[in-house]
Input
Amino acid sequence: MDPMTTPAAHAPRAPVTRKDVARYAGVSTAVVSYVVNRGPKKVAPATEAKVQDAIRVLGYRPNAAARALKLGSSETLGLVVPDISNPFFALFSHAVEDAAADLGYALVLSNSDGNLAKERRNIRNLAARQVDGVLLASVLFEPDLEVLETADIPSVLLNQERDAPGFNSIGVDLAAGARIAVQHLIGHGHTNIGLAMGTNVSDSTDGREVGWREALQEAGLPEGPIVYSAFTRPGGYLAGQRLLASVNRPTAIFATSDMQGIGLLRAIHEAGLAVPGDMAVASFDGSAESEYSWPPLTTVEQPVAVMAEAAVAALVGASRGEKPRHRIFPTQLHVRQSCGCP
Amino acid sequence: MDPMTTPAAHAPRAPVTRKDVARYAGVSTAVVSYVVNRGPKKVAPATEAKVQDAIRVLGYRPNAAARALKLGSSETLGLVVPDISNPFFALFSHAVEDAAADLGYALVLSNSDGNLAKERRNIRNLAARQVDGVLLASVLFEPDLEVLETADIPSVLLNQERDAPGFNSIGVDLAAGARIAVQHLIGHGHTNIGLAMGTNVSDSTDGREVGWREALQEAGLPEGPIVYSAFTRPGGYLAGQRLLASVNRPTAIFATSDMQGIGLLRAIHEAGLAVPGDMAVASFDGSAESEYSWPPLTTVEQPVAVMAEAAVAALVGASRGEKPRHRIFPTQLHVRQSCGCP
DNA sequence: CTAGGCTATTGACTCGAGTAGATCCCGGTG
DNA sequence: CACCGGGATCTACTCGAGTCAATAGCCTAG
Output
């Protein structure tokens, strides 16, 4: 440390700019830029050393706002999710942040709390902040593309099963995933399989419902009871209570999210039934929580990390003029014990 | 091209600037600023109407980067957490985002993944991005304040039990919370209470360990076995296996986080024991997951929303020159069933 | 010894918005 | 009629960094 006097701890230190570095190093400001950005012109090694030194001594950090202004890019991506405290979105956010950080982008997070007006506000807000792209996990199943269009930012629709022409979108093959899970349940000998379906504002039927139905039909089984409720733990709990009380009580249930699966388990336990003995369960998402429930949930895993990377790549590609596209990823069944496997 | 047809959907529309608005409205750029910011000078109502009109027609959005450059503030806060997919931090992030949004701030999220080097990088990165403040949930229990000092940004240390002079910090009374939980367990008649302690890089003892010990001493009970492991589900699982195998197996366990509590439950279930019959459990945090485990966990709830608000307020206060301070919040015991209550 | 050809460096302009200071225009006074 | 007050508006500079065109050295070939 400097043996001389240290400056007062809380003196409002003026921010160090490129000019200060230039003066200290005895060069022009242009050279400082060239050193910092390694280009676009070369700098003599000796000069570079002087500049690096000055940067270190003064503790210079380029002002990101100035940079963003000049370059027209803030190196920032926006992520809009319904609720970050939902484990699935938390997982997703983490993966997105990782992918973005790898490419030098920062991530601005905002929650829409299942509220369309808030979702719109958030998008507009991000647009005003000059983010380079928006990743939107809409509260709607058919998001209102208008806001995105008028905001005129590259965007990716997440969790999107169907193609929205002119937009990047990313999703998983819901139907195939659900089918595989229900088939697995059928493989355990179940003939009456219920569905705890998440509610969903859309005209078209959710792929998970389709997959459930298909698997049943293929096996020549009748449709089990369906209960619609929120994609949440309480939603699953409620669905569980209803399903258990239904006239033709199923012996297995497929839940359209892990959160519902968790809620389901609670309802079943409270009814004094055993899982998977009295009631088998399988769910959808593949979150960490599903691994540590009791019993551990057999679940359809979404390739979250891969999807996040693809989403970020699509955004970065869009700013380079690439065409928007719709990508669907495959899921994978994670067999644990709630289905009846040992 | 036909001038009447709409422009090609993906024509790289040039961004609308203040100048465009000024030209369209037939005024100077200064007036546009005055209208947008409602000051610092007055504008005649008629002129204002013209400008508002132009803004609407052209779809003008002020460039946040330019604004940030000129004003030296980006209206942005940074949040650094070890891992957003940990439910506790997810919950916290949500609360922080809410509080920040209420005050017009956006939130930049970054994960440090329990990696000190990454934590430092993230902080520096945020500093370069001119965030107005940083909320830091450090991976260390005694964060290296040096980075924050040299970065010279207002900051708040989260989850901080002890006072770091010159820094804002926010935490809960860990010892008191742990004590209350252990006392509750004692109230159920347990005399051998184990501790699943999260590992913690610090010289001093974690408050939760202190609280556990105090409660035992006060009741004249001997210390039960302690197992140290990560603050995670697998950490708790491991701790559970060890505690169950220990020579003087306890009849109740206090876990220092909900995640550990969840892991504990799994280990106990796998051993074929009943909770709370054979083994009672209580944990710490109050996350949503603890409510839906089986059985639901009795846990010490942290006032996450209040703390988040206080943290954001401290940051905003700091930019106004307020003195840094250390605040400790009380916890509250949430009695559910894992402790033995009906 | 000078022209030519390099390379390293610099000066100066730019991005878009905030705002101080100058200017303009109007009605009202003396 | 000249002058002044005062509100409305405009001109011009600023923030910090990127980068191009111009320049200053300097070495070598002729």
Notes: Confidence is low (pLDDT under 50) at residues 1-11 of chain A. Residues 15, 17-19, 29-30, 32-34, 36-37, 40-41, 62-63, 65-67, 69-71 of chain A lie near DNA strand D (CB under 10 Å from a C1'). The longest strand of chain A covers residues 76-81.
